[in-house]
Specification:
By secondary structure, the protein is an alpha/beta fold. It contains 12 helices and 12 strands. Strands 6-7-8-3-9-10-12-11 form an 8-stranded mixed sheet, sandwiched between helices.
Length: 329
Amino acid sequence: MVNVLEVKGLTVQFSKKSGKVTVVDQVDMFIQKGESLGIVGESGCGKSVTSLAIMRLLDSHGTVHGSIRLNGEDMLSLSKNAMRDIRGKEIAMIFQEPMTSLNPVLTIGRQLSEVLEEHQGKSKTRNREKVIELLKQVGISRPEEIYREYPHRLSGGMRQRVMIAMAIACNPTLLIADEPTTALDVTIQAQILELIQKIRAEFGMSMILITHDLGVVAEVCDRVMVMYAGQVIESADVRTLLRYPKHPYTVGLILSAPHRSKEQSRLHSISGSVPSPEEMPAGCRFAPRCEKVMPVCWEKNPNLQKVDQQSACRCWLYEGNGESTVVNG
């Protein structure tokens, strides 16, 4: 299988008055053609910053180190103009909040046409036909009317469909979806996820799905990578991770999710919160919140290492020990 994306040693630092602060630390990942990778973790774990670094969309205060290769091409060595050509054409992103991503003073048709003009140089007439076709593809029933509408006139679900249309306009090889169902009601969430799956299958796209919802990952992804405090702490194929999670943080995330087959008077919760980048613990970053913390956890941060054929884990519990916890029976 060919790797569409290969990321090695990705480290992102931001400049602050106190000095440089590391928010993403030595992240490795790969995505094969047609594969879907879920990146999971609480807010502040570095998921969105990782995706913005891959897209080269961080502001001037952010410094990126490591290697990012898309279809074999070194993304970090490309000029800003070269990256503009690649964004939308080879790699595209569905952002968390479409209202802040769409231009409020341009019609939907104009904004979608601009993507086609930038990357395909089509005439205005041809662009209009293609935009109408794209709006139909994402399940918009009145594409001719929506073409002339402004973003504020659309519902949240409709705006997200427009963002998906914009992302797939040039048939990219890699689609990054950053919390694509945030702030949508449950019914619309399900429709948007179904739409993303359908489009991915139809166009043969690879996808990175960023979410805090393991239920979404179970439905949509082939593999999953759990991030905590800027580091990857566990990775596995989705079935293995959900059935046999290894890291105490992953176990906590799974137990925290409501389960429709179980009556629960109170949901499990992980005590504490994700440490800020300026106040990382000296040892394991999860130690202050971990129910299985040991003396070594306070002293050294463990390496991410293979535990078995399916899984890798960053935890002192698995130094020479491949056992795991069964969570979902």
